[in-house]
Amino acid sequence: MSNGSAKPVVAVIGGGFTGAALAYHLARLLGPGAAKIVVYEPRAVLGGGVAYDTDEPVHRINVPAARMTLVPGDDEHFQRWLVETGALRDDLDATTADGHVFARRSAFGRYVSSQLQPLVAAGAIEHRRSRVRAVTEAEGGEWRITADDGSELWADRLVLATSHPSPQPPAALDTVLAGHDRYIPDATLPAALSSIRPDDRVLVVGTGLTAADVIATLDAAGHRGLVTAVSRRGLRSRGHNLSPQDPFGDFVDLPSRSARALLRRVRRTLAEAEASGVTWHAVFDRLRGQGGDIWRALPVAERRRIVRFLRPYWDVHRFRIAPQVEAAIDRRKAAGTFVLHAASIAGVTRQGDGEIAVTFRPRHGREPFEGRYDAVVVTTGPGHRSILASQPFLEGLVRAGVLQPDSVGLGIAVDEQSRAIRPDGRTAKIPFIAGPLARGTFGELMGLPQVTDHAVFVATRIADELADVLDTVLTTGRAVEV
Question: Cα-Cα-Cα-Cα dihedral of 215, 220, 223, 227, to 10°?
Fold first, then answer.
């Protein structure tokens, strides 16, 4: 046991939704007093993270509340909490005309925190409000964790549930615009858009969920200027069909072995759905539900092809925007204050008065064109390819030969038990990776239901290992290596 403790110590680095969910389920699986669970999270509460620790009222969950839960098998757990706590009393726009609830993301963060708080108060989970500076592997399989506040912890089990890395702005932008008052390289930071003035011409680089949040936030703040969004394919996140329909199709019976075969199968299923009066949403719901099995059936080379060529199309259909956010964008489009380009950025220059000139290269070889802006906001999504360079303790684990990138560029290499795979191939006495950073192996691990299921999966693996150890201690009276 670590630190001379009579019970095993489990350290979880990262207390956003993934880390909070893992600690919650591990504590429940192990029972009171069976282990010491320590979660490192600098935020004041557990469960918020980048996604749900936001004060912006227009930032909403992007699926109905009745399908958001910390407890698999109890889909309405969050929605009941909203009703029981009166969390929607000051959010009159949360409920759509047909009765679906799209609560503020901050409400979901409070819900998760409220579920963990009794466990924290009882001592089943310890929340350490500090960033981790270094993680060192010690003899015997223990891990020494050093935090920024100078404290140290020796852990028997280590789980990495770190946040998404910050976006990686296009080099053409970052080199020229660094230091500009209205250049925003990371729109997820608090008050990131505060420097943008009501009549500014705004360029939003990226057209996914974060871009939709940016446009809705500007609109709610009274912004009147033209907003231009650009991405290489010009794809925008789609909205929901909230009419009842079951997932449609099947993609695991005789699973596809290539990206091309899978694409053909999806197109064929979409045509069958349309002929049956079912929308594309149902097909993508089935793809999401079977995503792990679909992914595991594909060779690594085909997974890479999907990431390179098909991922943008998947993202805009899979990660849909809340109706309230979609309505804001539609209003801007109808008013002529929102336009969308399918193009890449070919050049950027700063003018003497702070104006930003951007040259675009459209798709399909059309003639380049120029736009002039007062502000530029980057919403290209997390820089997953740079995850191992995003925090000092991760860089240290790479140098020590503990971690390596996965083979498709989505996160960290893990095995089927979600244990990190060392560069030399060994998987003994190594960290567990929980959440989206494990999706190179597990596939669909960005949507909340899948993240919840994966947190339970990892918690169960750890609980099973520790249960064997604790049984040995109880029956023999001997401490054993954990």
Answer: 10
Q: Are 191 and 56 in contact (CB under 8 A)?
A: no
> Does the predicted TM-score (pTM) go above 0.85?
yes
Instruction: Using a pLDDT cut of 70, give the percent of the chain over it.
Output: 95
Quickly count: other Cβ atoms within 10 Å of residue 416's Cβ: 9
Half-sphere exposure of 75 (CA within 13 A, CB side): 6
**pLDDT tens per residue across span 245-294:** 999 999 999 999 999 999 999 999 999 999 999 999 999 999 999 999 99
Distance between terminal CA atoms of the chain?
6
Q: In Å, how far are 201, 429, 435, 438 from 432, measured between CA atoms?
A: 45, 9, 10, 9
Residue 361 phi/psi, 5-degree rounding, is -115, 105
Residue 357 has phi, psi (to 5 degrees) of: -100, 130
SS3 409: coil
Confidence of residue 1 (pLDDT cuts 50, 70, 90): low
* Spatial CA neighbour of 196 closest among 370, 354, 38: 354
Q: What does the alpha-carbon distance between residue 149 and residue 297 come to, in Å, rounded to a whole number?
A: 45
CB 477: neighbour CB atoms within 10 A?
7
**In this predicted model, what pLDDT tens digit does every residue of 323-332 receive, in sequence order?**
999 999 999 9
386: region left, alpha or beta (phi > 0 left; psi from -120 to 50 alpha): alpha
Q: 236 in the Ramachandran plot: left (φ > 0), alpha (ψ -120 to 50) or beta?
A: beta
Count of alpha carbons within 13 angstroms of residue 470, beta-carbon side: 18
Query: Using 50, 70 and 90 to split pLDDT, how confident is the model at 308?
Result: very high
| Type of residue numbered 55 | D
Q: Contact at 8 Å (CB) between 340 and 316?
A: no
| Region 442-465 average pLDDT | 92
Decide: 273 and 281 in contact? Cβ < 8 Å: no
How far is CA 322 from each of CA 104, 207, 227, 353, 482, rounded to the nearest angstrom?
Answer: 10, 15, 20, 38, 45
Helices (H), 181-253: 209-220
Dihedral, 189, 195, 200, 202 alpha carbons, nearest 10:
-20
> The tokens 């199968």 sit on which residue?
265
3-class DSSP state of 447 = coil
- pLDDT tens-digit readout, 377-394: 999 877 777 789 889 999
